[in-house]
Structures are given as structure tokens and as C-alpha cells.
Amino acid sequence: MSDPTETNATAAGEQADGAGRRRVRVVLVDDHRMFRTGVQAEIGQTEQTGVEVVGEAADVDQAVTVITATRPEVVLLDVHLPGGGGVEVLRRCAALMADAEQPVRFLALSVSDAAEDVIGVIRGGARGYVTKTITGSDLIDSIFRVQEGDAVFSPRLAGFVLDAFASTDAPPVDEDLDRLTQREREVLRLIARGYAYKEIAKQLFISVKTVESHVSAVLRKLQLSNRHELTRWATARRLV
């Protein structure tokens, strides 16, 4: 799909084809065109997978427009988006579609496996959260499970949600971490895990030069001198 806001006119609510096979209509929200294209190629062969990608969006405003126009069964939602992030998409869609007969369910699909990202979108109304390391077949299975009302999480992430909702205490505020943008946090975690700049660029679909700029910004904001100090800082805060 060349246009991020392209929609499909198929009637909302269609969940099976003429042969009775399961079908699900999906909107894909991610700010990286290459990633959207890859997911579309992996899951969007409708006759084989039963998944029909009826719209795409690259930022919050586009996402709200496409979702309200197409009313899909499931939205694959990135956590970090221009315009406010996945949580803002959830908030605005909930307000606009409060009286909808058919629920639109959200499955977060993100490179981030940080507890605060997982908990944030689940509290915002998402039915599940999987990381971008998921296989195509597992992603298709997760989409159908979310469509059916199940909660779906990558194994490691389920513990974050259980711990968060079992506790009545709000998570402590980390003023140093709050100085960083969402993208800077992603780069920080990958640096702390030992990834090279080229590996980070490939995983986040950005250039090596952009990675270097983010690292410089993180070091400056945290008043650190090098990536070794950054790794110790992140490990002490259990961000790795």
C-alpha cells in the first residue's frame, strides 16, 4: 500500500469467507514504511492467512482516521508514533467509537519490551502486546486470538502486566529517564544490551548517523561520558 491512509471498503464485521474459513480485517499502524511493507507481505496473503489488511497509518492522526473509517476487528499498533504514541491512538479511538456495535481490539506490536511501555498500552485498552521478534505464524495466531477476545502477550511481557495490576502502588518517577524521548529510550536499551550501531539502525529502521545522534543526546542528558557508563546506568535501573 503506497498511501498510509488507504482504506478498503469491505463491510466491517466480515469474519469468514464463503467457505466458512476464519477471516479478520486488520489495520496496521507503524511509522516505518519498510516495516509495514514487511508485515503486509508476511500476513496479508488473505487466501492463505485469513488476514486482510484494510488500512495502514504512520502516525496518530492517520491511525485514528483509518481506524474510524474502516472499523477493523484488530489493529496492530506500534507503541511509539509521531503525534502522541499508541496510547493516544487508544484514547482517541475509545472516545470516538464508544457506541460501536462491534469492538475494535488492539494488539501492540513493538520493538520495545520495556515494562513501562507494556503497562502503558494495556492500561490504555490494548488486548495484548507482542514484540517485533515474533514470527509471522505466531503473529497471525495472536491476531485471531485477540479478535476472539483473548489477551495475548509475549511470554516475558506477561509478568510485567501481572506485577503491575497486582500492585496498587504507582511506579516511581525517574526524572533522569523522563528526560529522554521514547526513541532515545529504545536506543539506550539496545546500546546497554551490547548492540552495535549498525545493528540498532537495522532493528529500528533508522540510519547509523541517526543512532549516533540519539546516543549523543542520551549521554548529554544523563551526563554520562561513554557507552560503558550508559550500560551501568541502564543496568542499575533494570532497563536492560
From TrEMBL:
InterPro entries: CheY-like_superfamily (IPR011006), NreC/VraR/RcsB-like_REC (IPR058245), Sig_transdc_resp-reg_C-effctor (IPR016032), Sig_transdc_resp-reg_receiver (IPR001789), Tscrpt_reg_LuxR_C (IPR000792), WalR-like (IPR039420). Residues 25-147 form the Response regulatory domain. Residues 173-238 form the HTH luxR-type domain. Keywords: DNA-binding, Phosphoprotein, Transcription, Transcription regulation. SUPFAM superfamilies: C-terminal effector domain of the bipartite response regulators, CheY-like. GO terms for molecular function: DNA binding. The modification 4-aspartylphosphate is found at D78. GO terms for biological process: phosphorelay signal transduction system; regulation of DNA-templated transcription. This is Response regulator transcription factor. It comes from Streptomyces galbus. The lineage of its organism: Bacteria, Bacillati, Actinomycetota, Actinomycetes, Kitasatosporales.
